């Protein structure tokens, strides 16, 4: 699904525009209050297809600021301005008042390649597909397009990869280096294409001859695809099969890693997303802590790896995933809507994972308790001893990894544990941290 940022300071109009854009154009709406909020998001989510913004918000030249940023960064993001903006009207479509929702829907549809049928059902001609779908395949079952700007408010879709053309990861990386964020495919091929990619990833991950590095990279691409599908609150058979294979692959790479330090360096030095860095390192740290317990069984690693794979699946941005306490959340620059997503993400993940046939009661319990609360809402400053023992291990490992991945915090193990010791007073948590004090090999 395409993503559209909407900047509208009139709350009633904001709701009206958003509902109709979602219903008729089929685009995911992200609300922002001003230019600065929008620029912060574009820096971490540059694949946004469209911005619809008031010309000015509370005296700020919002549209002009956004136009300058899009031009300077070379983004393939189109802009529709609500109201007069003479400085950029020669380049950007500026709609004059009064502006009806029908006009906005019509213009947004043109930009996003959507055919508005008389029946008022959304018929998306072209669907955006993230680049990570292409890294582990060398041909596609359908034609692949890119979107280019044809005029002030018009876009054209150009075929770039033909059905069954051969290509490799280098080809896709060249497009990425040129600033491309996504390809497009015809709507009727979406399910066919997704099944094709899923089968290719599963086949590759089930191979025994993959190097550790190749296994991690392939699993990271699979993780991104599963996250993307689950963020649309869908857990279909393809997502289930791909997640199962990915988790098994992650467990295999964690267990077969002879040197933890080398594996950590590899994760930091390669192009894997923050989300997968976090998930893989979390499984690795859980494995390390579990290996120091006399009661450890392989099934415990399988459970915690499953939780690590899914725990942050509903969070859309890295700043959201970096949060590890209510204090950090309140001090963050996230919008109120984003903060609510963080507060409820453990419970939301629990609701999604409960639909997964491989999610047993242990998995569901640990996901719900993953931030120290029994109800899966918000964070606990000092988690209770009542939590499940595996939940306690997960919480300590998770906090350790979040600090390790934060460039503004210490990366030395001794310093990380010093920070963590101030938070956890329970004896069980102290014992778990004692295990982390031992040397990594």
Question: Would you mind describing this structure in some detail?
Answer:
- 51% of the residues lie in helices and 12% in strands.
- It has 441 residues and is α/β, with parallel strands linked by helices.
- The chain has a 5-stranded parallel sheet with strand order 2-1-3-4-5, with helices on both faces. It has a two-stranded antiparallel sheet with strand order 6-7.
- Helix 7 packs across helix 10 (274-291).
- The longest helix has 19 residues, at 212-230.
The secondary-structure element order is EHEHEHEEHEEEEEHEHHHHHHHHHHHHHH
Largest sheet: 5 strands, parallel
Q: Strand share of the residues?
A: 5-15%
Shape from CA axes? globular
Helix tally? Answer: 19
**Parts with pLDDT < 50 across at least 5 consecutive residues:** 118-122
CATH superfamily of the largest domain: Hypothetical protein af1432
Q: How are the strands ordered across the major sheet?
A: 2-1-3-4-5
- Assigned CATH architecture of the largest domain: Orthogonal Bundle
Give the C-alpha Rg: 23 Å
How many structural units, i.e. domains? 3
Overall pLDDT: 87
Give short descriptive properties of this protein.
globular, Hypothetical protein af1432, 5-stranded parallel sheet, Rossmann fold, 3 domains, 441 residues, alpha/beta, two-stranded antiparallel ribbon
How is this fold's topology laid out?
Blueprint lengths: L2 E5 L3 H15 L2 E4 L3 H10 L5 E5 L7 H12 L4 E5 L10 E3 L5 H12 L1 E3 L5 E3 L1 E5 L13 E6 L5 E7 L7 H9 L4 E5 L3 H16 L6 H19 L6 H19 L4 H10 L4 H18 L6 H13 L7 H5 L3 H6 L4 H8 L1 H9 L7 H8 L20 H16 L8 H9 L5 H11 L4
Parallel strand pairs: 1-2, 1-3, 3-4, 4-5
Antiparallel strand pairs: 6-7, 8-11, 9-10
Helix pairs in contact: 1-4, 6-7, 6-8, 7-8, 7-10, 8-10, 8-11, 9-10, 10-11, 10-17, 11-16, 15-16, 17-18, 17-19, 18-19
């Amino acid at each position: 699904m395409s993503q559209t940022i909407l900047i509208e300071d009139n709350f009633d109009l904001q709701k009206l525009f958003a509902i109709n854009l979602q219903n008729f154009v089929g685009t995911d709406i992200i609300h922002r209050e001003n230019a600065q909020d929008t620029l912060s998001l574009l820096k971490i989510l540059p694949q946004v297809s469209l911005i619809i913004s008031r010309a000015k918000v509370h005296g700020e030249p919002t549209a002009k600021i956004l136009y300058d940023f899009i031009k300077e960064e070379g983004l393939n993001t189109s802009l529709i301005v609500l109201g007069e903006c003479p400085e950029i009207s020669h380049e950007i479509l500026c709609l004059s008042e009064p502006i009806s929702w029908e006009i906005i829907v019509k213009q947004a549809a043109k930009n996003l390649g959507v055919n508005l049928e008389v029946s008022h059902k959304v018929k998306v001609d072209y669907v955006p597909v993230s680049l990570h779908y292409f890294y582990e395949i060398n041909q596609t079952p359908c034609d692949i397009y890119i979107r280019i700007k044809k005029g002030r408010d018009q876009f054209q879709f150009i075929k770039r990869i033909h059905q069954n053309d051969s290509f490799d990861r280098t080809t896709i990386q060249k497009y990425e280096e040129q600033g491309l964020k996504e390809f497009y495919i015809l709507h009727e091929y979406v399910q066919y294409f997704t099944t094709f990619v899923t089968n290719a990833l599963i086949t590759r991950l089930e191979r025994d001859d993959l190097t550790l590095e190749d296994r991690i990279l392939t699993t990271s691409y699979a993780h991104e695809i599963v996250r993307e599908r689950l963020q649309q609150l869908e857990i279909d058979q393809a997502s289930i099969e791909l997640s199962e294979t990915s988790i098994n692959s992650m467990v295999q790479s964690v267990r077969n890693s002879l040197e933890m330090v080398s594996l950590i360096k590899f994760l930091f030095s390669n192009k894997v997303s923050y989300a997968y860095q976090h998930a893989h390192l979390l499984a690795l740290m859980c494995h390390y802590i579990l290996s120091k317990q006399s009661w450890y069984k392989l099934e415990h690693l399988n459970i915690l790896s499953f939780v690590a794979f899914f725990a942050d699946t509903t969070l859309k941005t890295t700043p959201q995933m970096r949060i590890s306490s209510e204090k950090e959340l309140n001090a963050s620059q996230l919008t109120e809507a984003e903060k609510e997503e963080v507060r409820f993400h453990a419970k939301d993940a629990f609701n999604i994972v409960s639909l997964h046939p491989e999610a047993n009661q242990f998995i569901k319990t640990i996901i719900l308790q993953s931030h120290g609360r029994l109800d899966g809402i918000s964070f606990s400053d000092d988690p209770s001893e009542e939590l499940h023992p595996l939940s306690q291990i997960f919480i300590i490992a998770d906090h350790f990894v979040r600090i390790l991945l934060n460039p503004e915090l210490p990366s030395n193990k001794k310093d990380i544990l010093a920070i963590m010791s101030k938070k956890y007073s329970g004896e069980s948590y102290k014992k778990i941290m004692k295990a982390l004090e031992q040397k990594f090999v």
